[in-house]
Amino acid sequence: MAKETWRYIDSGNQSPFFNMALDEALLDWHSEGKIPPTIRFYGWNPPTLSIGYFQKVDKEINMDAVNQNTLGFVRRPTGGRGVLHDKELTYSVIVSEEHPEMPKTVTEAYRVISEGILEGFKQLDLDAYFAIPRTEEEKDGLKNPRSAVCFDAPSWYELVVEGRKVAGSAQTRQKGVILQHGSILLDIDEDLLFSLFVYPNDRVKERMKRNFKNKAVAINALRKTPVSMEEAKIAFKEGFEKGLNIHLERYELSESEIQYVEKLANEKYATKEWNFKR
Question: Which residues does the UniProt record annotate as the domain BPL/LPL catalytic (predicted)?
Answer without folding.
Answer: 33-248
